[in-house]
From TrEMBL:
Top-level taxon of the source organism: Bacteria
Species the sequence originates in: Streptomyces africanus
Protein's UniProt name: Dihydrofolate reductase
High-level lineage: Bacteria, Bacillati, Actinomycetota, Actinomycetes, Kitasatosporales
Domain Bacterial bifunctional deaminase-reductase C-terminal stretches: 4-187
Transmembrane residue ranges: none
InterPro entries: DHFR-like_dom_sf (IPR024072), RibDG_C (IPR002734), Riboflavin_Biosynth_HTPR (IPR050765)
């Protein structure tokens, strides 16, 4: 069965974006450190690089290794819409969960206005690669019962405020660390599996 994987960057205090939805406060290190980190992560997760940036990263023809579907909330999608991009991951099946967006602005993006849990359970029952939950915090909070694995890229910065990685009801959920890697730019990537 396909799994739901929350692959996301977080600050030390668990924020995935600032109060306005931006994530440009994450420190990347110097140019060499940033390039090495980006190359390592992109080689392992090429499908998480937005379509418009794939060629610049040498990933134009890279196959999808882990995911064939991406799921995001309106806040995550709104950030790319505001930049004039209607289909950020054209190399994946794209779903946006929103009760307010209405009809999607792009036929390659499916807007779902009902239960995200029902959507994920339906997607998990299909054949294919795993499902990437790329944000946001409210969606992750509502989908916590269905999240099978986490890939958390932890950046060495405290945001102080902003969008939490999980914004939902109190629901302690245990995960086991399966792998951890540190990079020269002080980013730590940790892989977790649900217990």
């Amino acid at each position: 069965m396909r799994e739901l994987v929350y692959y996301v960057a977080v600050s030390l205090d668990g924020r995935i974006a600032d109060p306005g939805g931006e994530f440009d406060f994450y420190p990347a290190g110097d140019d060499e450190q940033a390039a090495a980190y980006s190359a390592w992560m992109n080689e392992r997760y090429p499908e998480t690089v937005p379509t418009a940036l794939r060629a610049a990263h040498g990933l134009a023809d890279a196959p999808n290794l882990h995911f064939d579907t991406v799921l995001m909330g309106l806040g995550t999608y709104r950030a790319v819409l505001d930049a004039g991009i209607t289909s950020p991951y054209a190399h994946l099946r794209q779903y946006v969960v929103s009760s307010t967006l209405g009809a999607g602005p792009d036929p390659e993006v499916t807007v779902v206005d009902d239960s995200p849990l029902d959507l994920v359970r339906k997607l998990k029952a299909e054949e294919g690669k795993d499902i990437w939950l790329c944000g946001g915090g409210r969606l992750a909070g509502s989908l916590l019962p269905e999240i099978d694995r986490l890939v958390i890229k932890s950046y060495p910065v405290v945001a102080g405020a902003g969008i939490p990685a999980f914004d939902g009801a109190f629901d302690p959920t245990l995960f086991t660390v399966t792998e951890r890697r540190s990079f020269a730019n002080d980013v730590t990537a940790t892989w977790f599996t649900r217990r």
